[in-house]
Amino acid sequence: MRETGAFKKQAPSPSISLEKAVEEEPVSFGGQRREFKHFKKKRKPVDVTELKKTLEESLNKNNNEDT
């Protein structure tokens, strides 16, 4: 019978003792994090006082229309 694809027999994995596992350093699976500063979008400056004023006017207008 021919062994192909999912039916292929795998070699048994090597056994490891608990003592040996404790002695070795832990394995990091996270990898290194890269900094992508050049990909960040530049934000437009916002005048917060003007924004607050506009929002208050809009909310007051909507509240007056509801009553």
Walk me through the structure.
The chain is an all-alpha fold. The termini are far apart. It is built from two helices and no strands. It has one domain. Residues 1-31 are annotated as: Disordered.
Average pLDDT for all residues: 78
Task: Quickly give the structural class.
Answer: mainly alpha
Unreliable spans: none
Q: Please work out how many helical segments DSSP would assign.
A: 2
End-to-end C-alpha gap: 82 Å
The largest sheet, given as strand count, sense and whether it forms a barrel, is: none
The rough form would be described as elongated
List the helices and strands and how they pair.
Elements: H1 18-23, H2 48-66
Q: Any descriptors?
A:
2 helices; elongated
Summarize this, please?
Residues 1-31 are annotated as: Disordered. This protein has one domain (18-66). It is 37% helix and 0% strand.
